What does this fold into?
Amino acid sequence: MSPYIGAFFGNPYSYMARHFGIFYLELRGNYQKINGQVLNEKDRYFSEAAKIFNYHKNYTLELGIEYGKNKYKVLDGGFVVRNLGDVYKSSYYGKIVVPLNSNLSVTAQYQRIKLDDGGEKQDVAMGYVNYYF
It folds into this structure.
């Protein structure tokens, strides 16, 4: 279960919006109860997440942070599935989307995740660029 609340800040016709864009803030709580665990693993996880989006001209900037533990989680409206038994402890990321024309955009993202994969704690950093047609 992942209830969330979000709000837009900024009037699109104001001076601030013309120079700095419009902001959207989202706060989310994530609760998981996993059935059928083996080896007496913990079966309840809770985490909190915050995201802020900035829409300015054609560009979109997104920053996010998540703290708490989760496992076997579905993210981004079902587009990302964490289907391994790793316990994700915290993460943060930054992402920018730049449209090149009406049919093509470039996305650059950097993400850092702290996780425990069953005995070995890891700190994973990822950076990538995607082209969308």
Observations:
- The mean pLDDT is 83.
- The two ends are 33 Å apart (CA to CA).
- The longest strand covers residues 87-101.
